[in-house]
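Q: What structure does this chain adopt?
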Amino acid sequence: MHRKACLQTRWRWHGPRASFRFWANKGVSMKNQTGDFMNDPYLPWADLAFRDNPYPWYERLQREAPVYRISEREFVVSKYSDYVEFAKHPAMSMEEPNWVKPHPWHVFKESVLFYDPPRQTLLRRHFNKWFTPKMVAEWAKHTKALVSDALDNIAQDGIVEAHHTICVVPTHVTMCRIFDIPEDDIEGVIENGLRIVMAQSPASTKAQLDDAVEGFKYLFDRCNAFVAEKRRNPGNGLADALIEAQARGELSEAEVVQAMVNFFFSGAPNPAYVLASTLEHFTREPELFDLYKADRESRQAMINEFLRLYPPEMSFTRYNKAAVTIRGTVIPENSVIRFMTAAVNRDPDVFEDPNTFDHTRSMRESQMLSFGIGTHSCAGQLISRVEIEVILSAIAERYSRVELAGSPAVQHDDRIRNYLTLPLRFS
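A:
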């Protein structure tokens, strides 16, 4: 049996490997009352066993402290019903109170990651028209061609490092084509994207925060160069549309660049993590791959269930502009509330046998929340779903079996899930 290598220490790039996603968690350090990241009974953020498999801790949290007060102004919500009601509550905001310390993610201050409506709504309108079902169907043609090329180039023994080759490259290049920007240095984009997201944990170290600064420098330098080139040589992509919106006075220069950085680094990680998790799951339960191959009608339901089990982003934070009461706990104004997406996706009050794959769940049980909820839900969720289906279906059309060809390597923290490598054998 292959053991999964779990790399929790500071990571350095050694080849084509990585994955992640894009909601900001921003400068919040959620220590418990004693400032201990390791020994909190419910959420030991820095504990390696917790990071590898947090679900036993989540189960206890939901039973004993569904609204958990970590400190005077830091709270955690872990039950499905509370998440659905309060994550989109009018009091919830992306705008930080003044007690939040400076953080590398403040480079996104003029983006949907920090804006509330109405500015957030106006900015998203510029993206949404590029991700309609009709447009996504066109972008998916690129994904299909890219994954087909990748599968064509697999050696005769069927062995491939699937995370980068099958999961990352087709999805990243598709996003580059949406923006009409260069597709080069994919490894650099993924490396530096990983550096910035590893600074989102409540237990991120100073070294990780410093790494994030360097990662952001790379990403912003690339996107500033893209904008400069677009001004000299316009094209027909989303990048051009944003620049044109700036020329009309609808967006600022900072909003254009920050939006580009956000999509540029995040175009691959979300679908790539779900894809890699699904492919590895197929190695454990090959009958599910058989079902995916044979039953086209079940594919959407199966993907939905894999999304429930394997959210790339485990949680997100909001700040309440007014006091709220959840399950009798009064949360004072200007607190930070962490909504535990991964926990609510396995809430036993909603999902029977929540740790088990079951694509035949009822409509109520199939309402997973991996893309968030409300006005700040993931802008790329439709294209992510379609890319996942296109890539899995391309594999299913060619192969009858998916097996591990080595030990997967992952880099997880309490908030983000990442594969570094996934060696597979297709046959």
